[in-house]
Amino acid sequence: MAVRRILTYPDTFLRERSEPVTNIDGKIQQLINDMADTIYHTPNGIGLASNQVGEPCRIIMFDTSAKDEPNDLVVLINPEIIEGDGLIVNEEGCLSVIDYRADVKRSERVTVKGIDREGNPITLKKEGLDAIVLQHEIDHLNGILFIDHISKLKRELYKRRLKKKLLKERDSSSQRL
Ligand code: NI
C-alpha cells in the first residue's frame, strides 16, 4: 500500500497540462495502485487525477459509491470527453483545493472515451454525479481546477482566505525554540 501525497492549490504543477500515456507498463500499473490506495485512504475522496499526485500523465479514477473500500472503481487512461449535454449545478470540492466548496455548472450527461488499465478502449456514458466527477477529473489533466469555473469575486475571496491560513501556518511552524 502506498498512499501518495496530494498536491494542493496554489502548487503550479496542478496548472500544467499532462501528457498522454503511451505505454501501460509496470510503472503505470504501480501508479494506478497507488492512486487507488490514496483515494480510499483519503476521507471523502471520490475521484483523483494522476497530476494531483505529481505524475504528469493522463490517468483518472473515481468511485462515487463513497465507501472507504474499493467498491466500484473506474480507471481511465487518456480520457477524452466526446459528447456532453444538459446542465447540472452541484456543489463541488477537491482534494487539491483545501477548505472550499462551491457550486459549479457542468454538462448533465457526458460520453467519455479512454483506455482501461488492461489497454482496452472503453466508452462510458454517464450522468449526474459520475458525469460531474468525470468532467472535474479531466479538467485536472488540462491544468484546470473547479475554482476556475466560479466567479472571479468568489475566487479572489477564497485566495485571500487561503493566503491568510497559509501565512498563519507558516508563522506557527516557524516558532521552534
Ligand atoms: Ni479535484
Summarize the structure.
By secondary structure, this protein is α+β, with helices and mostly antiparallel strands.
Proportion of strand residues: 25-35%
Task: Tell me the number of structural domains.
Answer: 1
Strand order of the largest sheet: 1-2-3-6-7
Query: CATH architecture, please?
Result: Alpha-Beta Complex
CATH top level class name: Alpha Beta
Q: What pattern of helices and strands is seen along the backbone?
A: HEEEEEEEHH
Major sheet size, sense and barrel closure: 5 strands, antiparallel
Which structural class do you get from the secondary structure elements?
A: alpha+beta
Question: Terminal Cα separation, in Å?
Answer: 36 Å
> How many strand segments?
7
> What is the name of the CATH superfamily?
Peptide deformylase
Low-confidence stretches: none
The gyration radius over C-alpha positions equals 17 Å
Give the averaged pLDDT, no decimals. Answer: 94
Helix content: 25-40%
Looking at the structure, the CATH topology is Peptide Deformylase
CA-based shape: globular
Which terms would index this structure?
two-stranded antiparallel sheet, 29% helix, Peptide Deformylase, binds nickel (II) ion, 177 residues, five-stranded antiparallel beta sheet
